[in-house]
Amino acid sequence: MDNLKELERTIYNCYFAGEDSPPEPIFDVLADGIRNDMDFLVPIETPEELINMMGDAGDVQPGDTITSKEDIDIKFRHLVVNEKGEYFIPLFTSKEEMSKGQPSSLINQPAKTLFEMVDNWPKCLGYMINPWDRKIVINKDIIHMILEYDRSAFITIVRGGVLDVHVAAIVNAANNTLLGGGGVDGAIHRAAGPGLLAECKTLGGCDTGDAKVTEAYNIDYADAIIHTVGPVYSGSAEDADLLSSCYLNSLDKAFENGYSSIAFPCISTGVYGYPLDEAAMIALTAISDWLKDHEGILMNVYVCCFRDEELEAYMKLISD
Ligand code: ADP
Predict the structure, then answer these.
(1) What is the number of the ligand 1 atom nearest to the C-alpha of 306?
(2) Exposure class string for 186-217: b at 16+ Cβ within 10 A, else e
(3) How confident is the model at residue 159 (pLDDT cuts 50, 70, 90)?
(4) Residues 183 and 306 placed together within one structural domain of the fold
(5) Computed from CA positions of residues 101, 107, 111, 112, in that sequence, does the dihedral angle turn out positive or negative?
(6) Who wins on pLDDT, 151 or 3?
(7) Atom nearest to 163 CA in ligand 1
(8) 147, 170, 194 - which closes a domain
(9) Is pLDDT above 80 for 275?
(10) Residue 311: exposure state from Cβ atoms within 10 A (0-12, 13-18, ≥19)
Protein backbone atom coordinates (compact mmCIF):
# COMPACT_ATOMS: atom_id res chain seq x y z
CA MET A 1 0.00 0.00 0.00
CA ASP A 2 1.29 3.41 -0.95
CA ASN A 3 0.77 5.75 2.00
CA LEU A 4 1.54 8.88 -0.01
CA LYS A 5 -1.08 8.03 -2.61
CA GLU A 6 -3.55 7.31 0.17
CA LEU A 7 -2.67 10.65 1.74
CA GLU A 8 -3.31 12.48 -1.54
CA ARG A 9 -6.68 10.75 -1.73
CA THR A 10 -7.74 11.68 1.78
CA ILE A 11 -6.68 15.30 1.22
CA TYR A 12 -8.65 15.40 -2.03
CA ASN A 13 -11.73 14.01 -0.25
CA CYS A 14 -11.37 16.47 2.59
CA TYR A 15 -11.47 19.36 0.10
CA PHE A 16 -14.34 17.74 -1.78
CA ALA A 17 -16.41 17.36 1.37
CA GLY A 18 -15.81 20.99 2.38
CA GLU A 19 -15.26 22.82 5.63
CA ASP A 20 -17.09 20.44 7.94
CA SER A 21 -15.21 17.46 6.67
CA PRO A 22 -13.68 15.41 9.51
CA PRO A 23 -9.85 15.39 9.50
CA GLU A 24 -9.55 11.87 10.94
CA PRO A 25 -8.91 10.12 7.61
CA ILE A 26 -5.86 12.36 7.11
CA PHE A 27 -4.63 11.76 10.66
CA ASP A 28 -5.15 8.03 10.16
CA VAL A 29 -3.01 7.93 7.03
CA LEU A 30 -0.29 10.09 8.61
CA ALA A 31 -0.20 7.95 11.76
CA ASP A 32 -0.06 4.81 9.63
CA GLY A 33 2.69 6.38 7.47
CA ILE A 34 4.82 7.09 10.53
CA ARG A 35 4.67 3.42 11.46
CA ASN A 36 5.30 2.24 7.90
CA ASP A 37 8.28 4.29 6.74
CA MET A 38 6.39 6.85 4.69
CA ASP A 39 8.82 9.38 3.15
CA PHE A 40 7.91 12.93 2.21
CA LEU A 41 9.69 14.95 -0.46
CA VAL A 42 11.21 17.98 1.26
CA PRO A 43 12.51 21.01 -0.67
CA ILE A 44 16.00 22.06 0.39
CA GLU A 45 18.24 25.04 -0.18
CA THR A 46 20.88 23.78 -2.58
CA PRO A 47 23.93 23.65 -0.29
CA GLU A 48 26.99 25.82 -1.09
CA GLU A 49 29.25 22.77 -0.77
CA LEU A 50 27.26 20.96 -3.41
CA ILE A 51 27.42 23.88 -5.82
CA ASN A 52 31.19 24.08 -5.32
CA MET A 53 31.57 20.35 -5.84
CA MET A 54 29.63 20.41 -9.09
CA GLY A 55 32.06 22.95 -10.55
CA ASP A 56 30.54 23.95 -13.84
CA ALA A 57 26.84 23.17 -13.29
CA GLY A 58 26.38 22.98 -17.07
CA ASP A 59 28.37 19.71 -17.09
CA VAL A 60 25.99 17.99 -14.71
CA GLN A 61 23.25 16.02 -16.44
CA PRO A 62 19.95 14.95 -14.88
CA GLY A 63 20.45 11.53 -13.28
CA ASP A 64 24.18 12.07 -12.61
CA THR A 65 25.41 10.98 -9.19
CA ILE A 66 27.79 13.18 -7.27
CA THR A 67 29.60 11.77 -4.25
CA SER A 68 30.58 14.10 -1.46
CA LYS A 69 33.69 13.48 0.61
CA GLU A 70 32.46 15.63 3.46
CA ASP A 71 29.19 16.00 5.33
CA ILE A 72 26.88 18.37 3.56
CA ASP A 73 24.84 20.75 5.61
CA ILE A 74 21.29 20.47 4.34
CA LYS A 75 18.73 23.16 5.09
CA PHE A 76 15.02 22.68 4.54
CA ARG A 77 13.27 25.48 2.75
CA HIS A 78 11.01 27.63 4.91
CA LEU A 79 7.66 29.27 4.20
CA VAL A 80 7.89 32.29 6.46
CA VAL A 81 4.44 33.40 7.57
CA ASN A 82 4.95 36.44 9.81
CA GLU A 83 7.27 39.28 10.74
CA LYS A 84 8.59 37.27 13.70
CA GLY A 85 10.20 34.95 11.20
CA GLU A 86 8.01 32.00 12.15
CA TYR A 87 7.68 29.50 9.37
CA PHE A 88 6.24 26.25 8.09
CA ILE A 89 8.33 23.63 6.33
CA PRO A 90 6.76 22.56 3.03
CA LEU A 91 6.39 18.82 2.36
CA PHE A 92 5.25 17.17 -0.84
CA THR A 93 3.52 13.88 -1.56
CA SER A 94 4.87 13.71 -5.13
CA LYS A 95 7.07 15.52 -7.65
CA GLU A 96 3.89 16.44 -9.47
CA GLU A 97 2.61 18.36 -6.44
CA MET A 98 5.97 20.10 -6.12
CA SER A 99 6.04 21.12 -9.76
CA LYS A 100 2.87 23.20 -9.28
CA GLY A 101 5.05 25.87 -7.62
CA GLN A 102 8.68 27.00 -7.53
CA PRO A 103 11.18 24.33 -8.51
CA SER A 104 13.60 23.21 -5.83
CA SER A 105 16.08 20.49 -4.96
CA LEU A 106 14.35 17.79 -2.96
CA ILE A 107 15.32 15.10 -0.51
CA ASN A 108 13.32 12.17 0.82
CA GLN A 109 12.75 12.31 4.55
CA PRO A 110 10.87 9.83 6.71
CA ALA A 111 7.64 11.28 8.11
CA LYS A 112 8.58 9.86 11.50
CA THR A 113 11.89 11.76 11.67
CA LEU A 114 10.29 14.98 10.45
CA PHE A 115 7.53 14.80 13.02
CA GLU A 116 9.88 13.94 15.86
CA MET A 117 12.34 16.72 14.98
CA VAL A 118 9.87 19.56 14.84
CA ASP A 119 10.26 20.56 18.50
CA ASN A 120 13.97 21.29 17.94
CA TRP A 121 13.13 24.42 15.97
CA PRO A 122 11.44 27.12 18.07
CA LYS A 123 10.35 29.25 15.12
CA CYS A 124 8.94 26.36 13.15
CA LEU A 125 5.15 26.25 13.44
CA GLY A 126 4.81 22.87 11.73
CA TYR A 127 4.51 21.49 8.22
CA MET A 128 2.51 22.50 5.19
CA ILE A 129 1.76 19.50 2.99
CA ASN A 130 1.46 20.29 -0.75
CA PRO A 131 1.43 24.07 -0.22
CA TRP A 132 0.84 24.99 -3.88
CA ASP A 133 -2.54 23.35 -4.36
CA ARG A 134 -4.79 21.51 -1.88
CA LYS A 135 -2.68 22.23 1.14
CA ILE A 136 -2.95 20.73 4.58
CA VAL A 137 -1.39 22.55 7.51
CA ILE A 138 -0.26 20.46 10.43
CA ASN A 139 0.89 22.56 13.32
CA LYS A 140 2.89 21.33 16.28
CA ASP A 141 -0.18 20.41 18.33
CA ILE A 142 -1.47 18.23 15.52
CA ILE A 143 1.97 16.67 15.05
CA HIS A 144 2.15 15.71 18.74
CA MET A 145 -1.35 14.31 18.51
CA ILE A 146 -0.49 12.25 15.42
CA LEU A 147 2.68 10.87 17.02
CA GLU A 148 0.54 9.46 19.81
CA TYR A 149 -2.52 8.80 17.70
CA ASP A 150 -4.45 5.80 18.72
CA ARG A 151 -5.57 5.04 15.24
CA SER A 152 -9.11 3.91 14.73
CA ALA A 153 -10.72 3.28 11.40
CA PHE A 154 -13.16 5.97 10.43
CA ILE A 155 -16.43 6.24 8.54
CA THR A 156 -17.06 9.48 6.63
CA ILE A 157 -20.54 10.27 5.34
CA VAL A 158 -20.17 12.22 2.11
CA ARG A 159 -22.68 14.33 0.21
CA GLY A 160 -21.92 13.13 -3.32
CA GLY A 161 -21.54 10.00 -5.40
CA VAL A 162 -18.89 7.26 -5.31
CA LEU A 163 -17.25 8.75 -8.39
CA ASP A 164 -16.75 12.11 -6.66
CA VAL A 165 -14.29 10.90 -4.03
CA HIS A 166 -10.81 9.47 -4.52
CA VAL A 167 -10.44 6.02 -3.02
CA ALA A 168 -8.56 2.80 -3.71
CA ALA A 169 -11.78 0.82 -4.19
CA ILE A 170 -15.12 2.09 -5.49
CA VAL A 171 -18.12 -0.10 -4.70
CA ASN A 172 -20.68 -0.63 -7.43
CA ALA A 173 -24.28 -1.54 -6.65
CA ALA A 174 -24.50 -3.96 -9.57
CA ASN A 175 -27.06 -6.58 -10.64
CA ASN A 176 -26.63 -10.37 -10.80
CA THR A 177 -25.37 -10.31 -14.41
CA LEU A 178 -22.60 -7.76 -13.66
CA LEU A 179 -23.11 -6.54 -17.20
CA GLY A 180 -24.10 -2.97 -16.35
CA GLY A 181 -27.41 -1.30 -15.66
CA GLY A 182 -28.92 2.00 -14.56
CA GLY A 183 -28.15 4.24 -11.58
CA VAL A 184 -24.68 4.05 -10.10
CA ASP A 185 -23.91 0.90 -12.13
CA GLY A 186 -24.41 2.77 -15.41
CA ALA A 187 -22.40 5.76 -14.16
CA ILE A 188 -19.46 3.54 -13.16
CA HIS A 189 -19.46 1.68 -16.48
CA ARG A 190 -19.56 4.97 -18.39
CA ALA A 191 -16.66 6.36 -16.39
CA ALA A 192 -14.57 3.17 -16.54
CA GLY A 193 -15.08 2.53 -20.26
CA PRO A 194 -15.51 -0.66 -22.31
CA GLY A 195 -12.64 -2.54 -20.64
CA LEU A 196 -14.81 -2.90 -17.55
CA LEU A 197 -17.65 -4.60 -19.40
CA ALA A 198 -15.17 -6.93 -21.10
CA GLU A 199 -13.76 -8.01 -17.72
CA CYS A 200 -17.23 -8.31 -16.17
CA LYS A 201 -18.23 -10.71 -18.96
CA THR A 202 -15.54 -13.13 -17.75
CA LEU A 203 -16.82 -13.20 -14.15
CA GLY A 204 -19.94 -15.32 -14.58
CA GLY A 205 -22.24 -12.95 -12.69
CA CYS A 206 -22.47 -12.48 -8.95
CA ASP A 207 -24.85 -13.82 -6.27
CA THR A 208 -26.92 -11.40 -4.24
CA GLY A 209 -24.93 -10.38 -1.15
CA ASP A 210 -21.63 -11.41 -2.71
CA ALA A 211 -18.85 -9.19 -4.16
CA LYS A 212 -16.36 -9.43 -7.03
CA VAL A 213 -13.37 -7.23 -7.87
CA THR A 214 -12.33 -5.77 -11.22
CA GLU A 215 -9.82 -3.18 -12.35
CA ALA A 216 -10.93 0.45 -12.51
CA TYR A 217 -9.89 1.07 -16.15
CA ASN A 218 -10.37 4.74 -17.10
CA ILE A 219 -11.13 5.75 -13.53
CA ASP A 220 -7.49 6.52 -12.98
CA TYR A 221 -7.68 7.77 -9.40
CA ALA A 222 -8.99 4.41 -8.12
CA ASP A 223 -7.24 1.04 -8.09
CA ALA A 224 -10.30 -1.18 -8.34
CA ILE A 225 -14.05 -1.53 -8.50
CA ILE A 226 -15.80 -3.91 -6.13
CA HIS A 227 -19.11 -5.05 -7.58
CA THR A 228 -21.70 -6.19 -5.10
CA VAL A 229 -25.34 -7.11 -5.66
CA GLY A 230 -27.88 -5.82 -3.16
CA PRO A 231 -31.25 -7.48 -2.57
CA VAL A 232 -34.37 -6.24 -4.32
CA TYR A 233 -36.44 -5.14 -1.31
CA SER A 234 -39.15 -7.69 -0.56
CA GLY A 235 -39.95 -7.02 3.09
CA SER A 236 -38.68 -10.44 4.18
CA ALA A 237 -36.18 -10.99 6.99
CA GLU A 238 -33.60 -12.19 4.49
CA ASP A 239 -33.25 -8.71 2.95
CA ALA A 240 -31.30 -7.34 5.90
CA ASP A 241 -28.84 -10.25 5.96
CA LEU A 242 -28.18 -9.93 2.24
CA LEU A 243 -27.70 -6.18 2.42
CA SER A 244 -25.36 -6.54 5.39
CA SER A 245 -23.39 -9.19 3.46
CA CYS A 246 -22.86 -6.74 0.59
CA TYR A 247 -21.01 -4.37 2.94
CA LEU A 248 -19.09 -7.10 4.77
CA ASN A 249 -18.01 -8.95 1.61
CA SER A 250 -16.97 -5.72 -0.11
CA LEU A 251 -14.82 -4.76 2.90
CA ASP A 252 -13.31 -8.25 2.95
CA LYS A 253 -12.42 -7.96 -0.72
CA ALA A 254 -10.86 -4.52 -0.20
CA PHE A 255 -8.80 -5.79 2.72
CA GLU A 256 -7.67 -8.99 0.94
CA ASN A 257 -6.46 -6.91 -1.99
CA GLY A 258 -4.57 -4.40 0.17
CA TYR A 259 -6.87 -1.42 -0.41
CA SER A 260 -7.01 1.13 2.42
CA SER A 261 -9.93 3.25 1.32
CA ILE A 262 -13.35 2.36 -0.02
CA ALA A 263 -16.43 4.31 -1.14
CA PHE A 264 -19.90 2.80 -0.83
CA PRO A 265 -23.09 3.97 -2.52
CA CYS A 266 -26.34 3.40 -0.61
CA ILE A 267 -26.75 -0.13 -1.93
CA SER A 268 -30.28 -1.26 -2.89
CA THR A 269 -31.87 2.08 -2.00
CA GLY A 270 -32.40 3.23 -5.57
CA VAL A 271 -34.18 1.08 -8.11
CA TYR A 272 -34.09 -1.92 -5.70
CA GLY A 273 -36.40 -0.06 -3.34
CA TYR A 274 -34.86 -0.64 0.11
CA PRO A 275 -36.29 1.90 2.60
CA LEU A 276 -33.54 4.41 3.30
CA ASP A 277 -33.70 4.52 7.10
CA GLU A 278 -33.48 0.76 7.43
CA ALA A 279 -30.77 0.48 4.81
CA ALA A 280 -28.68 3.19 6.49
CA MET A 281 -28.92 1.41 9.85
CA ILE A 282 -27.88 -1.92 8.29
CA ALA A 283 -24.99 -0.30 6.41
CA LEU A 284 -23.57 1.54 9.42
CA THR A 285 -23.92 -1.50 11.67
CA ALA A 286 -22.20 -3.80 9.16
CA ILE A 287 -19.35 -1.35 8.50
CA SER A 288 -18.73 -0.63 12.20
CA ASP A 289 -18.84 -4.35 13.08
CA TRP A 290 -16.33 -5.08 10.33
CA LEU A 291 -14.02 -2.29 11.48
CA LYS A 292 -14.21 -3.53 15.08
CA ASP A 293 -13.19 -7.00 13.87
CA HIS A 294 -10.20 -5.50 12.03
CA GLU A 295 -8.83 -3.14 14.64
CA GLY A 296 -5.46 -1.58 13.89
CA ILE A 297 -5.69 -1.71 10.10
CA LEU A 298 -5.96 1.36 7.91
CA MET A 299 -9.34 1.44 6.17
CA ASN A 300 -10.96 4.76 5.42
CA VAL A 301 -14.60 4.15 4.62
CA TYR A 302 -16.70 6.72 2.75
CA VAL A 303 -20.45 6.29 2.58
CA CYS A 304 -21.61 8.34 -0.40
CA CYS A 305 -25.04 9.94 -0.38
CA PHE A 306 -25.84 10.81 -3.97
CA ARG A 307 -29.35 12.00 -3.14
CA ASP A 308 -30.28 14.46 -0.38
CA GLU A 309 -32.69 11.94 1.18
CA GLU A 310 -29.80 9.55 1.70
CA LEU A 311 -27.79 12.14 3.59
CA GLU A 312 -30.86 12.99 5.67
CA ALA A 313 -31.32 9.32 6.58
CA TYR A 314 -27.71 9.03 7.76
CA MET A 315 -27.79 12.33 9.66
CA LYS A 316 -30.98 11.27 11.42
CA LEU A 317 -29.44 7.95 12.33
CA ILE A 318 -26.26 9.53 13.69
CA SER A 319 -28.12 12.18 15.70
CA ASP A 320 -30.38 9.53 17.27
P1 ADP B 1 -29.85 -0.25 -6.57
O2 ADP B 1 -30.30 -0.98 -7.78
O3 ADP B 1 -28.89 -1.03 -5.71
O4 ADP B 1 -30.98 0.33 -5.79
P5 ADP B 1 -29.11 2.40 -7.66
O6 ADP B 1 -28.00 2.65 -8.61
O7 ADP B 1 -30.48 2.69 -8.13
O8 ADP B 1 -28.92 0.88 -7.20
O9 ADP B 1 -28.86 3.16 -6.29
C10 ADP B 1 -27.77 2.81 -5.44
C11 ADP B 1 -27.03 4.04 -4.98
O12 ADP B 1 -26.38 4.68 -6.10
C13 ADP B 1 -27.87 5.12 -4.34
O14 ADP B 1 -27.08 5.70 -3.30
C15 ADP B 1 -28.06 6.11 -5.49
O16 ADP B 1 -28.34 7.40 -5.03
C17 ADP B 1 -26.71 6.05 -6.12
N18 ADP B 1 -26.67 6.54 -7.52
C19 ADP B 1 -27.66 6.50 -8.45
N20 ADP B 1 -27.23 7.05 -9.61
C21 ADP B 1 -25.97 7.45 -9.40
C22 ADP B 1 -24.99 8.11 -10.22
N23 ADP B 1 -25.23 8.47 -11.46
N24 ADP B 1 -23.78 8.38 -9.65
C25 ADP B 1 -23.50 8.04 -8.38
N26 ADP B 1 -24.39 7.43 -7.57
C27 ADP B 1 -25.61 7.14 -8.07
Answers:
(1) 16
(2) ebbbebbeeebeebbeeeebbebbbbbbbebb
(3) very high
(4) yes
(5) negative
(6) 3
(7) 25
(8) 147
(9) yes
(10) buried
Judge if the beta carbon of residue 90 lies within 6 A of ligand 1.
no
Looking at the structure, do residues 163 and 48 belong to the same domain, yes or no? no
C-beta of 272 in contact with ligand 1 (< 6 A): yes
> Same domain for 211 and 305?
yes
Whether 138 and 158 map to the same domain: the answer is no
User: How does pLDDT run across 62-93, given as a tens digit for each residue?
Assistant: 677 767 666 767 889 999 999 999 999 999 99
Q: Which of 103, 121, 147 is the last residue of a domain?
A: 147
pLDDT tens-digit readout, 117-146: 999 999 999 999 999 999 999 999 999 999
Residues 110 and 163 in one domain: no
CA 136 to ligand 1 centroid distance, Å: 32
* Domain region containing 279: 154-319
Please tell me the residue having the least CA distance from ligand 1 atom 22: 184
Q: Determine what percent of the chain falls in helix, strand and coil, rounding each to the nearest 5.
A: 40, 20, 40
Ligand 1: distance of its center to the CA of 34 in Å? 37
User: Is 267 a pocket residue for ligand 1 (Cβ < 6 Å)?
Assistant: yes
Angstrom distance (rounded) from CA 306 to CA 304:
6
Q: Closest ligand 1 atom to the C-alpha of 230?
A: 3
Question: Do 125 and 173 belong to one domain?
Answer: no
Kindly state whether residue 14 falls inside one of the protein's structural domains.
Answer: no
| The pLDDT value given to residue 186 | 98
169 lies in some domain: yes
Q: Are residues 186 and 109 in the same domain?
A: no
Question: Ligand 1 center to residue 231 CA distance, Å?
Answer: 14
